[in-house]
Amino acid sequence: MNAAQLPDITIPSDLLPADGRFGSGPSRVRPAQMDALLAANPGIIGTSHRQAPVKDVVGRVRRGLAELFSPPEGYEVVLGNGGSTAFWDIAALGLVRRRSQHLVLGEFSSKFAVETAAAPHLEDPEVISAQPGTLPAPVASADVDVYAWPHNETSTGVMAPVQRVAGAGADQLVLVDATSGAGGIAVDMGQVDGYYFAPQKSFASDGGLWISLMSPAALERASELAAATDRWIPAFLSLQTAIDNSRKDQTLNTPAVATLLLMAEQIDWMLEQGGLAWADARTRSTSGMLHAWAERREEITPFVADPAARSQVVTTLDVDERIDATAVTATLRRHGVVDIEPYRKLGRNQLRIATFPAVPESDVAALIACLDHVLDALG
User: Fold this and answer.
1) What is the CA 115 to chain-centroid distance, rounded?
2) Which of 74, 181, 346, 377 has the highest local Cβ count within 10 Å?
């Protein structure tokens, strides 16, 4: 059934979730974060980022992330201007010595591989690709000095393990793009050298910032390449400059202070709930509710066939071709339930539903009730 054939369906108000935002990024921001932004910090926004009030917020974010992720001794929380897209350039300049290996399992995991392939100072990367919805595995290679993949491929809803590559050398770094996974999925930080992300997913903030938890080996690599004479590294893309500034609780250029404040509030809230273990349990529960719902609806099929590879924070569900998924999502959007459309470039008749930590089980249950109502009305 296409959009033109879809009847005018009204969803009863008592079925609607308390908050209808289920976007995969930007994600919902809790009202308490907004209240804190507006009420508790009237004297910070609009002041110098080199002075104590703003530096205190940066320090609060760095300390909070260190508590949340509990990395091994010697790891540092580094942050800088720009999002994960900027960090791909930064890593190509400041962490990849000669050649990298990339797992490509969707749109976002392909972007870092494209950057290293285009870098004139690097050799062509090794690329291990998989069809969207499936999960490839890294292969130990003596010819690379960086292994890279996403913790969670936001475009497809595939979740990858974060673990060191069997047979890899001690001088080979593991870099994991955790933009949609960080804060919503449990992780052993000792298995990764650069766990990097932006704050607009689980941390319920705005973009324009990158954060990376970095191992001593990654910090040493950054220092080594910063001192090298065979590559030009612009100051804005210098990882060593970001490290030096982060140690002072600041960024090279003026940061978006509201972004930092929203993130700090979210980190504090997550720690109060029980930290990363609590967040992991919640996202397992809410994504599990959606996959269980798909099992009982013949019109709905999980896009990721392997249950072990299904994301806890971005659930992708194929809709039977007889039903136009865009019409279903449009009906929900008219009722304030938004951002469950599929990733545009994937081009599937699909629902994509985010279950970041700020999304409670009650809202997921209400979303399922709304979807049931629409699908049942279609007969």
Assistant:
1) 19
2) 181
Nearest Cα to 49, choosing from 194, 190, 209? Answer: 209
CA 258 to chain centre: 19
Residues 218 and 328 occupy one common structural domain: no
pLDDT digits (tens, 9 = 90+) for 102-126: 999 999 999 999 999 999 999 999 9
pTM: 0.95
**Which burial class, exposed, middle or buried, applies to 369 when counting CB atoms under 10 A from its CB (0-12, 13-18, 19+)?**
middle
The answer as to whether 80 is a domain residue is yes
85 vs 24: CA distance, rounded Å: 16
Among the candidates 214, 249, 271, a domain finishes at 271
Are residues 372 and 235 located together in one domain of the fold?
no
106: left (phi over 0), alpha (psi -120 to 50) or beta: left
**Total residues found in the chain within this entry:** 379
**Is 326 a member of any domain?**
yes
How far apart CA 309 and CA 179 sit, in angstroms, is 17
Q: Where are the alpha helices (DSSP H) in the chain?
A: 31-39, 52-69, 84-94, 107-118, 216-227, 239-246, 257-273, 275-296, 325-334, 361-377
Distance CA 95, CA 177 (A): 14
Q: Which two tokens stand for residue 354?
A: 């985010």
Do 298 and 370 share a domain, yes or no?
yes
* Intervals of the chain under pLDDT 50: 4
> CB neighbours of 8 closer than 8 A, spacing ≥ 6?
none
pLDDT tens, residue by residue, 31-75: 999 998 887 666 788 888 888 889 999 999 999 999 999 999 999
pLDDT for res 4: 47
Please, what is the average pLDDT of the chain? Answer: 95
Quick one: 284 and 231 in the same domain? Answer: no
